[in-house]
Amino acid sequence: MTTTRPSVPDEAEEALARASRTALPSDPATRSAFLLPLLDDARAKLAAAADRWVEVAAAAKQCEPSEAIAAEELASGPLAVARALAGWRRSLVALRAGRLPSVQGRVRRAGDARFVPAMPCLPFDRLVFASHRARGDGLPVVVKLHPLHAGLRELFASTFAAFADAGCSFVAGDGAFGATLARDPRVSDVHLTGSRSTFAALAQSNAMRPTPARLSAELGNVTPVVVVPGTWRDAELRARADDVAAMLSNNGGFNCASARVLITARRWPQRESFLAFLRERLSALPPRPAWHPGSAARFVSAGGRPADDGRLPCVLLECADPDSLPHAFRDEVFAPLLVEHSLDGADLTAYLRSATQFCATRLSGDLAAVVLAPRAVLARDRAAIDGFCGSLRYGTVGLNVWAAVGFAWMATPWGAFRDPRGAPSRSGVGFVHDSLLLRAPRRSFLRGPILPWPTPAWWPSHRSPRAVMERLLALTLAPSPWRCARVVSSAIAGRARGR
Question: pTM, whole model, 2 decimals?
């Protein structure tokens, strides 16, 4: 049978041709030696590109690069990439020497699984991220950017120019452009970040290829935030209200790990106090532009009401029910709207059992989840809380820390839950990031303190988050005690009032 190669635009043809004629060394040590100078070149250029990156990304989202916006873009863009480059460099140095990447901590076994400590990973992580913990065939690449982010293509191409020697290119285009790339017989692997419908169309098209490509994807999630009932101190309630506000407002609510469903105990005496603190925090946040395609319509269909100028405020819908508002529980709204649903439970065990069942049967996706538990409950029932976190079938579970922090750490694998029994995932296939190069990861667990100090720079109450992120970027690119001290001092200076 004769097959015809699909026609691709000139820009894509050049990128595919470069990739197809590039052969990387197959030996791990030789390949590592080849890639290390490319990583170092990108790290050297990243600091100079950071400000422009922030400006272009903010403009694409119809925002001015204010203090908070700039900090968000730095954290999710240059800083996350800097951590990835540093982590991969550490692993490649080990492979070049014929060793496996090392971890800082003890690897534990549980049945056929291993728990690998992935944090701290980089120099000074132990100081900068005190009390946070995580465990958890090189080919040329063509990176296709969404049209919204086409303005970043030239910046990426110049920052990662050295990777052209490895056959890597950056292009931008719409869905049809990406589909054409994916059908090209020179493409052996396709990774998609997008919707389930887009992935279904990709899989159908891929099945028609004489030699199907290997597919992986991250398809979003209805992220639950489960609040554990018990005796909470007032400071703990306020801190976690700030935390949930960050989970909803960051990037205007357009994150795959944004908080979507807040689960509380109906009989918890402090439920109303927590919701009052959360309402107060959300009401102080400015509405953001509805820059993501279709976001305003999704926001309204899930029960939100845009501001008079069309911007989207952060909205909390209390006492929501999945039967009367199924869209908010079944589909990823991808807008700054959070629904609260309360569950019954005669005691802690019954409530946790109900929360496990509710997440598994009434919510869509298995990418990320968050559990919030006070110090008093952790001291008394830590085994029950750990067991509950383990029962949640999500790729990343954060205990007293937003799961998206695992995305930004880069050492931890990020992707949908991989069921050891082979059950299909609801949020995609495969993992990304994973700078430790772990084999066949299943999921990541994160944990943080209930009252972190200083205030995390991604919380809305932090007063100078941009300075923290800029100094974290400088520390990551060129570690030193002086730069570490500057990060800590800026974090303390910007801490929330009263903490």
Answer: 0.92
